[in-house]
Design a protein that fits this description.
It is a single chain. This protein has 240 residues and is an alpha+beta fold. It has 2 domains: 83 residues, SH3 type barrels; 112 residues, no CATH class. The radius of gyration is 24 Å and the shape is elongated.
Amino acid sequence: MNKTFFGFHFFLFIGILSFAQDTIIFRNGDEVVAKVAEVSDSEIKYHLWNNQSGPIYVKKTSDIFMVKYEGGYKEVYGNNISHTEDDDLRAYAISKYGSSPIYMRAGYLRIGGRTLSREELSSILMSDELNTYYSAIGQSTAGAIMTLFGLAVGITGGILTFAAINTKVGLPLFIVGDVLTTVGIPLWAIGGARLNWVIDSYNNRVAGRPYSMYVEPRIMNYRNIGGHNTAYGLGLTLNF
């Protein structure tokens, strides 16, 4: 019991430490795990994470693409005031991956045959793309599970019902399977369409095609006096 308790708290402590670190991403693609000590308009001072009592390093903000602070906050830096998040993310993606397109395989986003980690995705995708990606993955997965499970249950129920083996059990199974499949297929399709939007949005930006139009199924949450409502429909996305 004591060993289990100690082990749980040890790994919890390690998890907290790893979450509390800062990550500095430079414009040349290099990354440094650090503890930021001071930030000004022109430079950042930091210690290396594994040597926080060691020397302090000073870097110009013009050499830095982004700093990811503990707690998840991100600060994106530009060379001048005319830069936008779109410009900086495009420059960083090209510096690290060239103009290679992003694509989906086996449920993961990839570039050039390698799967992108969560950290890499947060470095090259805009905030709306990243949020859409993670919600669409969950939506698509839920729809696929419901569809496949519904088909299995429905087929089993159909065999029991129409072969007159056990109608009392087969008919409810057939109905449940039909409902699951009816709900699951649209969820699966909508999730896939939203994933395609993320891929197209990134590829258009990196390829320097700022003008693109994409029609996608969309789920929107909005607030009203009584709380939150959800609207389903077709959304028209115009990037420019």
